[in-house]
């Protein structure tokens, strides 16, 4: 009844499109493909295998659990995990060659203890808070962390691989201020004599907006999945191809009279005799309830608005006198009419949320 098609060939296309974008005029900027949150709902293992085959330089995940899952599945690419539980086992991360982001002196001390237990240095990336105010060491605390890091290097407990930060994407003024703070962080590290193989700051949005901030590596998340990081632009403007198509089948049709209430709360009443089509997709599948009355779907190459209330497992569309039957294909977003951006607009959210919240009841089919 429900199918999610993931085109991994488009993942490869998007990776190489972004790679070509940053590597102009002889530059050699590395690419980190971000597969956190089940690859933004696209399937972490399948996407990771595809981008590894395409020669991605790094794979990025949020936490060590995701990183361990990749290693257990045979992924050999370099992996960075940046969000840690206070009780995370860094020993296992070190033994499986997983790079660890360090956002505080306390985390560095835990990493040192783990490295001693593992009899192997931990590869770290220092995360600097340049203005997003999430995880990361502040500029005021950075010098102290750098001094401690230098000592840990001398003791053989850590190897500094990277230093990085993340833009807030608030506006050009704010982003440029963060880039300036990142430059200050780099200068402080140089003063303390702490060297890094990789400096990385930008995700998909910053990579497209600030060529001066590409440094040694860029992190590609939403762009990898063929979606734009900007509300005012569509992915096709950057040469990116959507990866996910969500569809279902009509499971029932019925002819009803004028004035019939449809679904919970009778948000919609039929204005005339008409045909209603039932589709087994609801907010349990990730179709936002607040898109009721606004979102459109495509049936037999024609767009219909979901005028009634979206329920947990289903919604109803008024197809009038059109020829629609049980078994007909219904595209929620993808290769016909509506896009993830369209659905995001209807739900007053962003395309990131639409694809990431896709439910587990979809049967997933991977192409390529």
Keywords:
single chain, 368 residues, alpha/beta, TIM Barrel, Lyase, Ornithine Decarboxylase, Chain A, domain 1, 9-stranded parallel sheet, 6-stranded mixed sheet, 11 helices, 20 strands, 25% strand
Low-confidence stretches: none
Q: How many DSSP E strands? A: 20
Number of domains: 2
CATH domain topology of the largest domain: TIM Barrel
The portion of residues forming beta strands comes to 25-35%
Q: Termini distance?
A: 23 Å
Largest sheet: 9 strands, parallel
Q: Tell me what the CATH architecture of the largest domain is.
A: Alpha-Beta Barrel
Mean pLDDT: 96
Query: What would you report as the Rg, rounded to the nearest angstrom?
Result: 24 Å
Question: Can you walk through the features of this model?
Answer:
The model has no long low-confidence stretch (mean pLDDT 96). Helices cover 32% and strands 25% of the residues. The longest helix has 21 residues, at 172-192. By secondary structure, it is of the alpha/beta class. The two termini are 23 Å apart. It folds into 2 domains: 8-234, Alpha-Beta Barrel (TIM Barrel); 244-367, Beta Barrel (Lyase, Ornithine Decarboxylase, Chain A, domain 1). Strands 2, 3, 4, 5, 6, 7, 8, 9 and 10 form a 9-stranded parallel β-sheet that branches. The chain has a 6-stranded mixed β-sheet with strand order 17-16-19-11-1-20.
């Amino acid at each position: 009844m429900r199918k999610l098609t993931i085109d991994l060939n488009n993942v490869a296309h998007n990776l190489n499109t972004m790679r070509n974008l940053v590597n102009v005029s002889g530059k050699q900027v590395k690419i980190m493909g971000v597969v956190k949150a089940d690859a933004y709902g696209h399937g972490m293992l399948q996407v990771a295998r595809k981008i590894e085959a395409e020669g991605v330089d790094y794979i990025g995940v949020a936490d060590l659990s995701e990183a361990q899952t990749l290693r257990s599945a045979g992924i050999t690419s370099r992996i960075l995990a940046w969000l840690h539980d206070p009780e995370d086992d860094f020993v296992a991360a070190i033994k499986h060659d997983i790079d660890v982001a360090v956002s505080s002196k306390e985390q560095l001390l835990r990493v040192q203890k783990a490295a001693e237990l593992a009899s192997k240095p931990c590869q770290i990336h220092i995360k600097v808070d340049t203005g997003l105010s999430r995880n990361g060491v502040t500029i005021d605390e950075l010098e102290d962390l750098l001094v401690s890091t230098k000592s840990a290097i001398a003791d053989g407990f850590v190897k500094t691989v990277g230093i990085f930060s993340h833009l807030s994407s608030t506006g050009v003024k704010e982003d440029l201020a963060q880039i300036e703070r990142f430059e200050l962080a780099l200068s402080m590290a140089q003063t303390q004599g702490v060297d890094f193989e990789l400096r990385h700051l930008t995700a998909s949005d910053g990579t497209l907006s600030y060529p001066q901030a590409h440094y040694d590596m860029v992190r590609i998340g939403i762009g990898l999945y063929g979606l734009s990081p900007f509300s005012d632009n569509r992915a096709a403007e950057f040469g990116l191809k959507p990866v996910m198509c969500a569809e279902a089948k009509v499971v029932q049709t019925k002819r009803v009279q004028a004035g019939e209430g449809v679904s919970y709360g009778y948000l919609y009443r039929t204005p005339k005799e008409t045909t209603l089509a039932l589709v087994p997709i609801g907010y349990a599948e990730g179709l936002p309830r607040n898109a009721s009355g606004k979102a459109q779907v495509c049936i037999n190459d024609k767009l219909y608005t979901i005028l009634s209330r979206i329920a947990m497992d289903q919604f109803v569309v008024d197809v009038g006198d059109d020829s629609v039957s049980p078994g007909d294909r219904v595209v929620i977003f993808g290769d016909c009419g509506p896009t993830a951006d369209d659905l995001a607009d209807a739900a007053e959210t962003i395309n990131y949320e639409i694809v990431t919240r896709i439910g587990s009841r979809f049967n997933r089919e991977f192409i390529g």
